Amino acid sequence: MSYIYSNIIGSFILGDDFRIVTKQLFKTVKNYQDREKAEKTLLKKYPKSKTVPKEKIAAILELFKDSEYYSKFYQNNILLTKQLVRNSVNTDNLILQTISNIDDLDKTTNILVKRLRSWYSLTFPELEKNLNNHEKFAELVATKSRKELLKELKLKDEDIMGAELEKVDLEEIKLLATNVHQLYILRDKHEEYLKTLMEEHCPNLLEIAGVTIGAKLFEHAKSLRRLALLPSSTIQLLGAEKALFRHIKTGAKSPKYGVLFTHPLVQKARPKQKGMIARTLASKISIAVRVDFFRGKPIGKKLREELESRFGR
Fold this sequence. Notes:
Blueprint: E1 3-7, E2 10-14, E3 20-25, H1 29-33, H2 35-45, E4 50-51, H3 57-61, H4 67-88, H5 91-120, H6 125-130, H7 134-143, H8 146-152, H9 167-201, H10 203-221, H11 224-229, H12 232-237, H13 241-250, H14 264-267, H15 271-293, H16 300-311
Parallel strand pairs: 1-4
Antiparallel strand pairs: 1-2, 2-3
Helix pairs in contact: 5-7, 5-9, 5-10, 7-9, 9-10, 10-15, 10-16, 15-16
C-alpha cells in the first residue's frame, strides 16, 4: 500500500513504512496552490495511493527534518506568507485608511486655520469676525488680495483696525492660506473616493447612514464582516465606548447613542425621542450591513424610506 501526501515543498508518494518513494518538489508558491496537478501526475504512476491518515501526519513530518527539506520549507513559507499578506489587502483596508486620513486632515486643518485666522487678523480683523466658514476664509485669503477683500466688504482702509503689513509678511500668510485651502480640497477628494468605495462595497449602509457616519461605523468595527456580526444594540453605541465604561464603572447615565448622534433623523428629533430613533436606526443599519456582507439584493433605499416615513424627513 502507498500513500500520497502534499505540503508546501512538494507532493510525495510514501510506502507502507511511510518512507518517501518518489516526489515532485514545488518551485513556486503557485505550484503549491495548484498541487492537484502534481498529485494527479504521481497518481498516474501509483493509482492505488491513499490519503495519509491524520494520526500519521506527525510521524511523516519527521521525514522533513533533513537539511535539504528544511531550507525548502523555510523559503516557501516566507514566500507563502508574503503572498497571504498581499492577498489580505481588501476594500475594508482602503475604507479604513481613507476615513482615518480624513480624520487626520480635519485635525490638521482645524489647527492650521485657527493660526491663519489669528495671523490674518493682524492686517484684516474684520474679515475674521464676519466670516465663520473656515474653508471659505482660507480660500479668500489664498486667492484674493487685501484690497479685493476690502472692496467686497465695501470697506475702506480707514474703516478697518488692521495694520498695513509689508508684502513679504502678506506672502507668508498667503502661503499658509494656500496650503490650508489645498488640504480642504484634498479632504473633499478623499470623501468622494470614500463614497465610491462604499457604493461598491456596502451600498445599503451608505444609503441609510451616509458617507461620514457609515465610514465612522466601519472605523470602529474595523471590517464589514465584524460590523455585520455586531448586534444592533452594539452598533447603536459605537463611538460612545468611554461613556459606556464610565456608566459601568461609576453608575453614570448610560449613553443612548454614539456615532449615530450626528445622523439627521437623530439630530432633528426631540430630546426624549433621540434614543428611540437611534435604536431603530441601528436595527436598520444592522440589517443593511448583513445584506452588504452576504451580497444580497439592494434594500437600502427601502429601509431608508421606512425610517423617513416613520420619523419624517
